[in-house]
Amino acid sequence: MIAAFLLFFGACCIPAGPSPFESPSPANLEARIAADLPGIDLSAVADSLENHLRTAAWPEEPNGFRWAVRGGEARVVHAYLVVEEVSDPHLEIGTAELAGRGPVVVGEEIGLEVTGQKWSKSPLFIWANRSEELPPDLPERDGVIRVLERVFETAVAVDEDYVDVEAQYNEDLGEFEVFWFRTVVAAVDEPDIELSLAEGRELDPECEVGDSLGVVVPWRAALSVERILLTWLRKRRESPLPRNILANFPAGELDVRRELAKRDVSRPPAALEDLLAGQTGAAVRPFAHFDFGRDHDPRSISVVVPEGKVEEHLTAIRDDLPRGWVSWRGTPRWLGYPPPLPEDQSPVELAIGPGVTPSDMLLNTRVDAINFGHDTEAIVPMIVAVAEEHGLDIRGASTDTVWFTLDAKTLKRELAEDLAELCPDIPVDEHLNQIDEGTAYCWWD
Q1: Structure confidence at residue 22 as a pLDDT band (50, 70, 90)
Q2: pLDDT for the residue 41
Q3: CA–CA distance from 391 to each of 256, 385, 435 (Å)?
Q4: pLDDT for 134-169, tens place per residue?
Q5: How far is residue 58's CA from residue 23's CA, in Å, rounded to a whole number?
Q6: I need a surface site. Which of 93, 176, 349, 420 has the fewest CB within 10 A?
Q7: DSSP letter string over 75-88?
Q8: CA-closest candidate to residue 126, choices 58, 55, 175
């Protein structure tokens, strides 16, 4: 029963919009905004709204941010000029700070697609939770409100399947409210746009056949609000997005990368050696192996532990790692020289190296799928994409193998199919057997 979960208003309080049977949609958004704001400079409205969004989300450095919609989701992109040495950190980025994040060219403009906690400060999320008061001195405030109302209508109509909706900004509460309108009829043929006289009089005892009644509806269309609004804003930006955009760049990562670029990573700090030795009781070596143990990286440190202990040690070490360092299980194969443990203990390397993200960790391992035409730079984003899609924890990698753990919420069949597409050497059924044990892996012969 509608009355059980909606807040109701009579038709005399909430008049219906001018086109009750034309459901709002992205296709008619522009026309509805233009009809609502005749003679208004929509570019000025868009500028005011965009500046408010940027400065509210990033008050310390709003310049350089541009909005984008990629893969059906709203994104924010920070544009930088690639340089050898950074003089203005708000507008420039150094090549050393981008190590491992794909090919870049000095003098080109690139974009970092920012994700993470800082983005959640955006008023787009705040409005979605119905608790944002628009500043009274906001330029083009009336136009901004009208645009946002039309955007909210569109998002709710698309996500919640309401036909005739109208959004209004409540100045007293500082909230955007969305109303669902239906016409009172003697006999209901279309329940999406009609209600009976008996239902109507439960809402408004004075209503009559032909009246249009609106009720406040609950909704969960935050992502659609973002996508629709940012798409509308993007149409009015004169400056295009950078051609080269580095996806999924976590908020705060650049600051850490700038620290890494200045750091002498040829010698990890002694505190990391103490952490590794204290957790495992093993002798720390001033390198980590790659290429099946035939080569080593002096920027990292490692120990060799029995296979049965590596996951326990890795979890404990990751819990205590300082920002700017990553840890992983590494090679179980030793083609360079024998490991310092008997073979019957299945020795595995456990390493710590410089980095911020799972991508950095994988780059340290030099994992590749070269027999399938993917070098390290190519396969790492593919691995990370599958892990993010299914909520996997990337535990480590060797030259041709990567290991994951997963939680109980993972959709097993979908994951197995995606893993089989990523690494065709392992069939879906074999992936399913492994997934049933709470782990997964990829291997490229």
Answers
A1: low
A2: 82
A3: 24, 10, 13
A4: 788 888 888 888 888 888 888 888 777 777 888 888
A5: 35
A6: 420
A7: EEEEEEEEESS-S-
A8: 175
- Contact between 406 and 440 under an 8 Å Cβ cutoff? The reply is yes
Query: Does residue 255 register a pLDDT over 50?
Result: yes
Q: How far is CA 30 from CA 34, 44, 235, 267, 333, in A?
A: 6, 15, 11, 58, 60
Rounded to whole angstroms, how far apart are CA atoms 26 and 189?
Answer: 27
Evaluate whether 195 touches 214 at the Cβ level (below 8 Å). Answer: no
Task: Map residue 169 onto helix, strand or coil.
Answer: strand
Tokens of 394: 């990337």
Q: Where are the beta strands (DSSP E) in 87-216?
A: 92-94, 109-115, 165-170, 175-185, 194-196, 212-216
Which tens digit of pLDDT belongs to each residue from 43-67?
888 888 877 776 665 555 545 666 5
Q: pLDDT (tens digit, 9 = 90+) per residue, 214-236?
A: 888 776 666 677 777 777 877 76
Residue 206 to residues 1, 164, 202: CA-CA distances in angstroms? 20, 22, 10
Residue 76 has which token pair? 């924010």
Structure tokens at 186: 């003697």
Residue type, 29: L
Taking alpha carbons only, the member of 420, 379, 381 closest to residue 399 is: 379
3-state secondary structure at position 120: helix
Q: Is 121 exposed, middle or buried (0-12, 13-18, 19+ CB in 10 A)?
A: middle
> Cα 151 from chain centroid?
22
CB proximity list for 305: less than 8 A, separation 6 or greater = 280, 282, 313, 341, 347, 348, 350
Concatenated DSSP letters of 332-359:
---SSS--SS-GGG-EEEEEEEE-SSHH
Instruction: Tell me which DSSP letter residue 345 carries.
Output: G
Q: Where are the alpha helices (DSSP H) in 161-249?
A: 197-203, 222-234
Structural domain boundaries of the chain?
1-262, 264-443
- Asked whether residue 338 carries a pLDDT value surpassing 50, the answer given is yes
How far is the C-alpha of 111 from the C-alpha of 241, rounded, in Å?
Answer: 7
The DSSP bridge partners found for residue 176 are: 169
Output the pLDDT for position 8. Answer: 38
Q: Which of 115, 95, 105, 100 is nearest to 355 (CA)?
A: 100
The partner residues of 185 in beta bridges, in order of sequence, read 196
Residue 21 has pLDDT above 60, yes or no: no
Tell me the mean pLDDT in the region 278-298. 87
Rounded CA separation 178/9 (Å) = 12
Percent of the chain with pLDDT over 70: 76
